[in-house]
Amino acid sequence: SSDLIDNLIAKNILDxxxxxxxxxxxLRKNKKREAIQFLNDYLKxxxxxxxxxxxxxxxxxxxxxxxxxxxxxxxxxxxxTSNEIASLxxxxxxxxxxxxEIAFQYLLKAFKNPQISVNNKVQYILxxxxxxxxxxxxxxxxLRLVSIISEVHNQEPEAxxxxxxxxxxxxxYENAAKEFEAAINLKVNTYDIYEKLLICYASIGxxxxxxxxxxxxxxxxxxxxxxxxxxxxxxxxxxxxxESRELLEKSLKYSGHNTTLVQLLYRLLAEVNSSLKDYExxxxxxxxxxxxxxxxxxxxxxxxxxxxERKKDLDKALQMSKQALEFSPNEPSYLDTYGWIxxxxxxxxxxxxxxxxxxxxxKDSNDSVLWEHLGDAYYKSGNIDEALKNWKIAMEKGxxxxxxxxxxxxxxxxx
Length: 415
Description:
Largest sheet: none
CATH architecture of the domain at 324-415: Alpha Horseshoe
Distance between the termini: 111 Å
Order of helices and strands: HHHHHHHHHHHHHHHHHHHHHHHH
Number of helices: 24
CATH topology of the domain at 324-415: Serine Threonine Protein Phosphatase 5, Tetratricopeptide repeat
CATH class of the domain at 324-415: Mainly Alpha
Oligomer: single chain
Structural class: mainly alpha
């Protein structure tokens, strides 16, 4: 009863629930002003009382007194900076009013509260920022909120997976890799996470980690094609061609109907076999890859260069190289290939035009073969000085092959 509550309060036997009961009794007696004053007086003595603050702010909101409701919730946040109900209530309030930047600041406060579960935080992200229609200006906000989830819940695998996935779809592969690594350290061993981490390493060019992880995943999941592909790719980069071919052939065996991966495998197997001088196989893979995609400029370029190096089917090589250049007319490697085919056809002056342009577009490149090719073309055209000049640049760019050294020393090409 009201008298009992008053007696307990008079004896200083204070309890938030008792205070709220008296508030409710006063409201039922239609003593609204007295009820409000009673709670305000209590909050002056105990400003950090969460139940009283929430009860009074809720009353204010229900009676269209938003200003005082917001003030009370902000006072509560001064006592508890990440109070769940206060911060989320204010976030929702400002979102409804269209004041999105202020709403975001309150979300930040809430997300720093470890008592709010990862799943609940995810739901708030989806409510505030629908991912199927995410505005560009909101992407950074989502990433920041996800980062806080990962930091606050750093021993919860689902937090790391969530952060990794969001960074992954945002193509922030370095950040995604850190989150997936943390998830794996928390004993997450699903193939999906390993695959995404492999893609992250490949995207940021971390070939050492890519190789280590790919080989580990092959042991764990021996029938998945992508780990074999990545391991074979790194072996190719490292010029371990036999090992690369073996791994890539296994990837092809398990790739099934993954047409994107199959096309990548055809391209890479063509290059690997070309490097092994197994030209029957390399040409086979080049041809079937081109049947699948005749507009692949890189494929057209690499196949034509392989033919040029062997002085085989030079007319066909020239036509494919021309197609590649139509797609990317200022790509130095494509210009070099076209010029090199002309060189192999004995059209040295014409070759110089393309080889020179390739060099001019690659001044900051260390691809020394461009300068060596230009030097060779100058030599064949009778311009020894320009030949020596470009051979020396090739040497300065890091080319240490014996044939180049001999050209410079002898001032000629030893056929």
